């Protein structure tokens, strides 16, 4: 994260007519994209409190998390599930799924994000379900 934003460092886009694409080093508000809750969910409480003290939530779309109460709930849910699924919170017609990337000491240092157009959302839900059921360690 950079300030209140997530920064996209690497990207891969499919060879399709319709796809979702963000430029490398693009900064987006952490509260409005699926990578944000993933990165925030594993921060210490004092870092979260600093974030909440500074962040200015903006209603980008009708689904955007726009209150700190809802954002705290989203972060807690992300911590419990180990992933974040966002439905048109920043951009109309775009859903995304993010999961944490951990270093050798098991600290979350980055997030892996998959975005897709809404017309492919059924696929995204299936992929998310498969990932969560098959690959996430269960507590």
TrEMBL record:
Family matches, as Gene3D superfamilies: 3.30.450.40
InterPro entries, sorted: GAF-like_dom_sf, HTH_MetabolicPath_Reg, Tscrpt_reg_IclR_C
One function term, GO molecular function aspect: DNA-binding transcription factor activity
Name of this chain's protein: Uncharacterized protein
Listed PANTHER family: HELIX-TURN-HELIX TRANSCRIPTIONAL REGULATOR, ICLR FAMILY, TRANSCRIPTIONAL REGULATOR
Pfam families assigned to the protein according to its UniProt record, in alphabetical order: IclR_C
Organism: Hyphomonas pacifica
Domain of life (superkingdom): Bacteria
GO annotation terms (biological process): negative regulation of DNA-templated transcription
């Amino acid at each position: 994260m950079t300030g209140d934003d997530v920064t996209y460092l690497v990207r891969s886009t499919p060879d399709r007519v319709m796809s979702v694409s963000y430029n490398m080093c693009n900064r987006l508000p952490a509260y409005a994209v699926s990578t944000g809750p993933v990165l925030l969910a594993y921060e210490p409480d004092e870092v979260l409190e600093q974030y909440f003290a500074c962040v200015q939530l903006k209603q980008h779309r009708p689904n955007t998390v726009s209150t700190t109460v809802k954002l705290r709930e989203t972060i807690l849910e992300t911590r419990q599930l180990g992933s974040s699924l966002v439905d048109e919170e920043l951009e109309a017609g775009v859903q995304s799924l993010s999961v944490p990337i951990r270093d050798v000491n098991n600290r979350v240092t980055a997030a892996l994000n998959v975005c897709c157009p809404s017309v492919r959302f059924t696929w995204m839900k299936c992929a998310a379900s498969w990932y969560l059921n098959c690959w996430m360690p269960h507590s």
